[in-house]
Protein 1
Amino acid sequence: MANFEIILHHQDPSVLRVIVVALRAHGFHPEDEGLAGVLGTPGLSPPRGLGIRVPSVEAEDARLLANALLEEMMR
């Protein structure tokens, strides 16, 4: 079983979903169970926002791509 790391937090789940799709398109493996938030409380997100988790071995490269994509999206 792979260890996962959160590579990006954001308040808008729609933005995170787009980034998850892009990560998958680039060969990364974001966690299938969705975005990392507060378990059992749909619609409630932690102060830093929801997170995207990927296997630890992919985290460094996936974090670079996710942050670059977020920067582009926020322009």
Protein 2
Amino acid sequence: MGGGHSFSPADVEAVAKEGSVLAAELITEKTTLVPEVMFDKERIVEYLAFVGIAPAYDEVAVYSPAVDGKVAVMAIAKACYEKLVAEFGANVEFSSPLIQGHAPKQGTLIDLVGEVLYVRIFNGGMLFGEAMRVENDADILFYLEQINKVYNIYNTHARAQGEKMRLAKLTKNLFTDIECE
């Protein structure tokens, strides 16, 4: 996927020759969060399967380092994973927008990257974090409405990231306090 979230095989080979550690942020709806205290790297496929997003036959499960007590478990294309490991060996670190960036004490973070909508809700800690595949604006509005029914996010401070202009246009009449970075 473009937009600063992709890399060519030639780029990978050049960086690997430098002996660098590759930090790969995976943009995928096949992401779940696991509390660090409960995390077992031998069970990463089970974590995805438990929430209904098991890796497909051509995918493998990977995980991030813990951030604020949470580990992101994600599915990645097997061919991509094998290429990265062949080039970098153990010098590959995976991450997700669900655990990256500023974590406010209270409020909602909405991040739209391509066809994946990330929503995180905080109130003294993360209450909710989810990655959802969206194919159009109606999907975005549907997910936000369903989340609002449970968490009342329209009345919290919200921050939009990623495709912020699209999010600003869609949410300007929903949230009482939204900021687009």
Protein 3
Amino acid sequence: MASWFNRQSRLIQIILLLIPGINWIVEILVRWSAFLKTKSLITLVVAILVTFFGLAFGWLDLVWCLLFKHLIFANA
């Protein structure tokens, strides 16, 4: 899912991150798939945090995605 999200156009990424409910689901799927691919500790910690506090991370990731075209710590 992380590689799929990174392959999407920036417009699609931004639209997915703008809708609050969809934002949280996309964040969870992308974070956990990035963890399964990279197996790093920081990716695991962020995936756990996003699972419980996803809406707060969503707006931060929206800005990060505008700048760098991937989510924070999820560049798998």
